[in-house]
Amino acid sequence: MALINHVKREINAKLVYFGPAHSGKTTNLNVIFRKLKPECRGKLKSMAVQQDRMLFFDFMVPGQGKVDGYQVRFHVYTLAGKVTSDAAWKMVLKGADGVVFVADSASNKMAANRENLAALREQLQGAGKVPCVVQFNKRDLSDAVPLEEIRQALVTGNCPVVPTVAAKGEGVLDALFAVIKTVMQTLKESGLELEGGAENLGGLTVPEEPAAPELTSRLAGEEAGATSQMAAEVAVESGPAASENDAPTIEVDGEPVAMSDGRLRLPLTVRYGGKEKKFAVMLALSLESEDTAQ
Fold first, then answer.
1. CATH of domain 3-189
2. CA–CA distance from 106 to each of 126, 145, 162, 221 (Å)?
3. pLDDT digits (tens, 9 = 90+) for 197-225
4. Are 1 and 95 in contact, with CB atoms under 8 Å apart?
């Protein structure tokens, strides 16, 4: 489910690339990352999830992708290679606003395509209507299953389909734009409460439940700077005017708690002008590599 940052006037939407092992999920993310202008995207990061490796980054489409004046920031995720744990996919798919299913066009991969598509449907049960695009990858293979045959085997309803050769960058952006289009339409029709919803601390939206990993705080490795920024952004309820020396303060209100998905929950108390607010920040630590493309 998309989350809202009122200070930045942004809607954060999550896209997940799902599919069989070695179908081209990681290749898709690397191609998209390379084709986006550096000023429009964040860093491509890698993080261990269970025994698997998650790749992710965020980006914005300049001048486009707005809903009622709010810019949409897309967070793209996948799990690299052969995934050993269903729990890893469950965590990555949590809160997904759109999914690209990357099917392998090789004739000997059809069973794996069907098995993974069934797993995706099972993982998304109870998540409501999640827009999905099916990407028929590796169309340059000599034994590639004919498009109509693979469509009949995998696609139901009006789900958009896009043939690609991700290794050559062909069709990758077409598949991305197809899922962005469906997600944007869903957001516009969803009736997002852009001026309310969730507890709002001066625009810092705090969900009722801990946010999924794609929206964890950027405090990891940047604690000091982020703390200062948060102090400036926290809203103050009406009350006696604060003096120039009455600066906002943020205090750690207890010990960090390790969550089951590897994140840390850090309770904080913010005081300013005689008022007090309590909230929690979810922290995710990751090790970055100079070369995440594999």
1. 3.40.50.300
2. 32, 6, 16, 43
3. 332 222 222 233 333 333 333 323 333 33
4. yes
